[in-house]
Design a protein that fits this description.
Helices cover 57% and strands 10% of the residues. The chain has 331 residues and is α/β, with parallel strands linked by helices.
Length: 331
């Protein structure tokens, strides 16, 4: 297995970065923008959905005012039918951080895609190339099963053989379900075990990264999710999804199966009532937030601060930058 670590490469060149992490709707963008305003920074989005053009309201992209206050990177860089993945994110994020640092600014990575953040700081591992033929054969067969028996059939198999990975995935996320199954068949270990092995090999996080987790009372977070769901619909989310469908983007695309888009597609194409669609969207967003909290709760080196404690967050960043730039801070 081969490690690819963007943070370690940046550390070699003396580039420090700040990360703002947390569950959906907690307010990561607002905090990241304020950090940029205070310390002269630019935001690098760590969101696997905000990369897609035309998917704006449903992914809660930064507002025009937030974009005015702080430049944002890795937003609107792929079409909805492109396969944007972890390896591409790491490459794009590292390049953005280097460009930002070259301008004398602070890179501030902000988002809720935990896998992207972990890959950036700890690296990713590729399977032994000798396993490639077995992987390709498994993938071919699994795709044939998907076409014949459906996504739920494959998801049930994954749930039996690797319940930990299955718990992280939506049953309709066929791309990742197939990925988990092909790893199991080709390498003889579960995807969960491979991730655990990767973390063990990666070692300690580089000392050039400050990771701040935004905390929020669970009930308050769920209220924010419910409120944002209604706001998205009021802002024209239904019309956004109609435009995507009219442009030829199939409801079967991985991104169109994501939270919000699959619910609104069901409303538009299947006659599901708008209120029911909104309720299901809010429910599934709450469940997603719960999974995010579990993920980030296991992250090494994440320092939690209340989402409203901007003074405390800024003190953390100030101390980190002072220590790192003086050569004494390493963690």
């Amino acid at each position: 297995m081969k490690e690819l670590s963007a943070a370690a490469r940046l550390a070699r060149d003396g580039i420090g970065v700040v990360m703002i992490a947390g569950p959906t709707a907690v307010g990561k963008t607002a905090v990241a923008v304020e950090v940029c305003r205070c310390f002269g920074g630019e935001v690098v989005s760590v969101d696997s959905m905000q990369v897609y053009r035309g998917m704006d309201i449903g992914t809660a992209k930064p507002s025009p005012e937030e974009l005015r206050l702080a430049p944002h990177h890795l937003i609107d860089i792929a079409d909805p039918d492109e396969d944007y993945n972890l390896a591409r994110f790491i490459e794009d994020a590292e390049r953005a951080c280097r460009d930002i640092a070259a301008r004398g600014m602070l890179p501030v990575l902000a988002g809720g895609t935990g896998l992207y953040m972990r890959g950036f700081t700890e690296g990713i591992f590729e399977m032994d190339p000798s396993l490639a033929p077995a992987v390709l054969e498994s993938r071919r067969r699994l795709k044939a099963e998907l076409a014949e028996k459906g996504a739920e059939f494959l998801y049930r198999r994954l749930r039996e053989k690797d319940p930990q990975s299955a718990a992280r995935l939506h049953p309709n996320d066929s791309v990742r379900v197939i990925r988990a199954l092909e790893i199991l068949e080709a390498a003889g270990i579960t995807w969960s075990e491979m991730i655990a092995d990767s973390r063990g090999r990666a070692g300690d996080n580089p000392g050039n990264v400050l990771k701040v987790g935004l905390a929020c009372d669970r009930e308050r977070l769920y209220q924010r999710i419910d409120s944002r769901t209604r706001q998205m619909i009021a802002q024209g989310f239904r019309e956004e999804v109609k435009r995507l469908l009219a442009a030829g983007y199939s409801r079967e695309l991985k991104n169109m199966q994501s939270i919000g888009y699959r619910h609104m597609t069901a409303h538009i194409l299947d006659g599901v009532g708008i209120e029911e669609a909104a309720d299901l969207m809010a429910r599934d967003t709450r469940r997603y937030a719960k999974r995010q909290l579990t993920w980030f709760g296991r992250e090494k080196g994440l320092i939690w601060r209340d989402r409203g404690d901007m003074d405390g967050i800024c003190r953390l960043v100030e101390d980190f930058l002072e220590n790192y730039r003086s050569g004494t801070g390493r963690g």
